[in-house]
Amino acid sequence: MKDLRKAAKGRDCQARFPGYCAFDAATTVLCHVRRGGIAGVGQKPCDLAAFIGCHVCHDIADGRRKSEIPDDELNGYILDAVCRTLAIWNREGYV
């Protein structure tokens, strides 16, 4: 599999958290999703359990930055971001 961490850089944020997203492709990275019991302390999930996100959306998803988005809505936005990211990887032949 190609290096999805490198491939995420410089792309449009797929999380787009309303009222928070920086829409800054210069800051996008592969943001690993730490939900569903697939990661522990000091352990990252696999690169497929991730989305392309700007620095602000990444910080919110990881809990480093607080937002007014309720947890259930945040989880929905994250799921949407993962799905959009997987569609990109599939379309481009990464997976």
Short description:
This protein is mostly helical. It is built from three helices and two strands.
Which helices and strands occur, and which strands form pairs?
Elements: H1 4-8, E1 29-32, E2 50-53, H2 55-62, H3 71-91
Antiparallel strand pairs: 1-2
**Residue fraction in strands:** 5-15%
Structural class category: mainly alpha
State the distance separating the first and last CA atoms: 7 Å
Strand adjacency order, main sheet: 1-2
Count of DSSP H/I helices: 3
Rg over CA atoms, rounded to whole Å, is 12 Å
Largest sheet: 2 strands, antiparallel
Q: Can you give the mean pLDDT?
A: 92
Strand element count: 2
**Helix content bin:** 25-40%
Categorize the overall geometry: globular
Uncertain segments are none
Order of helices and strands: HEEHH
Protein architecture, described:
This protein starts with a helix and ends with a helix. 36% of the residues lie in helices and 8% in strands. It has a two-stranded antiparallel sheet with strand order 1-2. The chain is mainly α.
Please supply descriptive tags for the structure shown above.
mainly alpha, two-stranded antiparallel ribbon, 2 strands
